Amino acid sequence: MEKIKLIEARKRKGLSQSQIAEKLHMDVSNYNRREKGNAKISYEEWEKIAQILETSVEDIYESDEGHIVIFKDNAIGNYNGTNNVYTVPEHLLETQRKYIEKLERELEELKKK
Fold this sequence. Notes:
It is built from 6 helices and 2 strands. The chain is elongated. The model has no long low-confidence stretch (mean pLDDT 84). It has a domain at 4-64: lambda repressor-like DNA-binding domains (434 Repressor (Amino-terminal Domain), Orthogonal Bundle), CATH 1.10.260.40. The protein has helices at residues 4-12, 17-23, 28-36, 43-52, 57-60, 90-112; strands at 67-73, 84-89. By secondary structure, it is mainly alpha-helical. It has a two-stranded antiparallel sheet.
C-alpha cells in the first residue's frame, strides 16, 4: 500500500526521494520501495524519516495492515530499552469516530432544549 501521507509530507518539504534515501543511508530504489509499500518500514526508520521531515511519526505513518500508531510508550521499568508501539485497526477507529459524531449531535440537540 502506497504511503500517501509520507509522500505528501516529503513533497511539502521539497525533498526528493534521493535526498531522503541519502539521509537514511540507503539507495533511492530501496527508499522508493518503502514509499510504494513494497518494502516494510521499521519503526526506527519511521522515526528517522519524521525527524528529516520535521514532523511526528503519527503525521506520516501508514501501516500495511490497516493499523494506525496511537502512541509510543516509554514505560518506567522498561529496562531493556525497547519502546512499545500500540496500534488500533482502522475499522475500530472509524467506529469510534462515528460514535463521537453521534454524541456530538445529541449534545447539540440537548443544548437547544
